[in-house]
Design goal:
The protein is an alpha+beta fold. Helices cover about 45% and strands about 20% of the residues. The chain contains 8 helices and 7 strands. The strands form 2 sheets. It has a 5-stranded mixed β-sheet with strand order 1-2-5-4-3. Strands 6-7 form a two-stranded antiparallel sheet. Helix 5 runs antiparallel to helix 6 and helix 5 crosses helix 8. The longest helix is centred in the first third of the chain and has 14 residues. The N and C termini lie far apart (about 50 Å).
Length: about 190
């Protein structure tokens, strides 16, 4: 394990990614770590990634994480939850990685749009700009909307506005309205 104390969830993520790669599982880093890739550095006590996995395989992944020496707990969402299930992986120091088993409205193509970012000798698959912004708009909290706004400001000419609008449509009317309120929608 790479961690040797608290406050190292990003390093724990690398260990978890080793498990994911061993199993050839697709993942995409989201949350605060993805925000930092898109120019928004802010502190977070955990690291987040979304997987393309059905619940049955997430149960198997939980067992594999435990066998690898981590604490792991699988939580299933209800029918109204935008996250079908979440696998929380922790180490002895309290570092935490949250693995989401998808996100309602997220396109499968989001994984192919992920960007590779080097981090401590590993290439991380991180949510691309448009997918990152769309997820933040879908989440809809004040910090999420601020993250989306700042990512759009930092993007300048790198943003594919048509792609962003198409992705946001999949997250539903609230996300579309949030995009319009940011003034980034071409409509």
């Amino acid at each position: 394990m790479r961690t040797n104390g608290p406050g190292q969830s990003a390093l724990l993520l690398l260990d978890v990614i080793d498990v994911l790669c061993t199993e050839n599982l697709q993942y995409m880093v989201i949350g605060a770590m993805a925000a930092s890739v898109h120019g928004l550095v802010r502190a977070s006590l955990d690291a987040d990634a979304v997987l393309s996995l059905p619940l049955s395989e997430l149960r198997s992944l939980e067992k594999q994480c435990i066998e690898a020496g981590f604490d792991a707990e699988l939580r299933e969402g209800d029918d109204d939850d935008p996250i079908p299930a979440l696998l929380e992986v922790m180490d002895a120091y309290g570092n935490r990685v949250d693995l989401l088993s998808g996100l309602r409205g997220m396109q499968a193509a989001a994984f192919s749009r992920a960007v590779e970012v080097p981090f401590h000798g590993t290439l991380l698959q991180v949510a691309g700009l448009e997918d990152f912004v769309a997820m933040k708009l879908f989440a809809g909290g004040p910090q999420d909307l601020e993250d989306a706004r700042r990512a759009l400001q930092n993007a300048a000419d790198d943003l594919d506005a048509a792609l962003l609008e198409q992705i946001v449509q999949g997250y539903g009317p609230s996300a579309v309205e949030a995009l319009r309120n940011l003034g980034s929608s071409p409509s």
